Amino acid sequence: MLTRIDHIGIACRNLDETVRFYRETYGFEVTHEEVNEEQGVREAMLRINGTDDGKASYLQLLEPIREDSPVAKFLARNGEGVHHIAFGTDDVAGAAAVIGGRGVRVLDAAPRKGSMGSLITFLHPKDCGGVLTELVQANEDGAQH
Amino acid sequence: MLTRIDHIGIACRNLDETVRFYRETYGFEVTHEEVNEEQGVREAMLRINGTDDGKASYLQLLEPIREDSPVAKFLARNGEGVHHIAFGTDDVAGAAAVIGGRGVRVLDAAPRKGSMGSLITFLHPKDCGGVLTELVQANEDGAQH
């Protein structure tokens, strides 16, 4: 059902500085950048490795673009750091239905748009041992690779 | 230098309950369990996917076994949740030397024992955008696979 660690989402105050840190310290390169207006973030995806389901694992660096975005609220409460983790699936709606049926609150009534044309949904962190958890169905046009 | 997301470390109060959550909710299975006396934790490794460097990505669930362990202090401050992230390398001492030379404080003078016979070192979270970051050199006897 879930076949990879799709990404680790990291909240930061300055995306350009954080991208520079990951590039200059570890050699990780930005695969993709975009603004997600719905979530109120500017983000960069850094591909770390390929995975044996034919996709890849990324770091997702997130900078809020408005003060009422969830990532802005996270930064105000916690400071910079890991914001969420995401598992990859080839059927996000199906996986969310199964997981919801196992007693975990699914935060989105229907999957919504994630990075690089993916479909995503979030699970309630209080039902997941304090871990904000996302499910990701990669865009099959290959942009996720 | 760093070729995979090796694991995501998650702090929990009850390892058995948390293992059960990950198994029953997502179908993830425990690959390995051990006690790390030095770090004061009981831990379970759940293999999520293979990686294109020939190794794998895991969740590492961590329960403190004494109150003065770093994970116990983390739980007291933050509650349950993501504790650290770890990148895999084939040379942890070399990678730590390079990264230390780029201005990040390396928390261990020499690599120490990690999960499944690996060698590990930690980087200071204040130098890594609030993210406690670990470097992992897998045990080459194949236990990491």
TrEMBL record, chains A, B:
PROSITE patterns: VOC
Keywords of this entry: Metal-binding
BP GO annotations: L-methylmalonyl-CoA metabolic process
Domain VOC: 4-138
Pfam families linked to this entry: Glyoxalase_4
Entries under InterPro entries matching the protein: Glyas_Bleomycin-R_OHBP_Dase, MeMalonyl-CoA_epimerase, MMCE/EMCE_epimerase, VOC_core
Membrane-spanning intervals of the chain: none
Gene3D superfamilies in UniProt: 2,3-Dihydroxybiphenyl 1,2-Dioxygenase, domain 1
Molecular functions per Gene Ontology: metal ion binding; methylmalonyl-CoA epimerase activity
Family: Belongs to the methylmalonyl-CoA epimerase family.
Protein name per the record: Methylmalonyl-CoA epimerase
Organism: Thermobifida cellulosilytica TB100
